[in-house]
Amino acid sequence: MVTIERRGGDRTMDNGGGVPTGQTAPGQAVAGQAVSGPLPYEGVWRFTAPAVETSVPQARHAVRDLLTRQGVPASDDVVHGLLLIVSELVTNSVRHAALLSPMIAVEVAVGAEWVRVSVEDNHPYRPKALEADQGQTGGRGLLLVLEITKEAGGVCDAEHTASGGKVIWAALPLKPPR
């Protein structure tokens, strides 16, 4: 069972944002518009889960339920893409980092125009997307994350954390690109 907690008053991301160029982070002003406060669905939520297989569907369901409960105005395609990204990133942490990181953290940040999901673990290795190989039955999760993100007009990256681990994140626009 995972419980999502709303993070404190700071509504921006710890690692510099990951907000796609031309978009604003939660609580930031848009040029020419008055800031009357964050929209009801804006915020940052974080939860931790054990690095075990059962955490994959739990994380996916928790993110889906959070987006629904907060009334995030994301299209079905964006939500589907986010849930696939969460599944792939949590699966990677469970399969490849559990020995060094018995717990993982999932964070969801929602701004006025974007939604960002990230998965953090304590393993120092930053994975690389593998090329598609017809003979291989696995190992292309990060490639899938990159493709989903690119198709949605978003951005993603992997970064080291202050504690020596890593965080992999993907930010997608709430409205699909034109």
Specify Rg, calculated over alpha carbons: 16 Å
Work out the number of β strands. 6
Residue windows where pLDDT falls under 50 for at least 5 positions: 9-32
Principal-axes shape call: globular
Question: Descriptors for this entry?
Answer:
178 residues, alpha+beta, 6 strands
Note down, in words, how this protein is organized.
With 178 residues, this protein is of the alpha+beta class. It has helices at 55-70, 76-96, 141-152; strands spanning 5-6, 43-50, 103-110, 114-121, 155-160, 166-173. 28% of the residues lie in helices and 22% in strands. A six-stranded antiparallel sheet has the order 1-2-3-4-6-5, with helices on one face. α1 runs antiparallel to α2 (76-96) and α2 (76-96) runs antiparallel to α3 (141-152). It is globular and about 45 Å long.
SSE layout:
Layout: E1 5-6, E2 43-50, H1 55-70, H2 76-96, E3 103-110, E4 114-121, H3 141-152, E5 155-160, E6 166-173
Antiparallel strand pairs: 1-2, 2-3, 3-4, 4-6, 5-6
Task: Please give a quick description of this structure.
By secondary structure, this protein is α+β, with helices and mostly antiparallel strands. It is built from three helices and six strands.
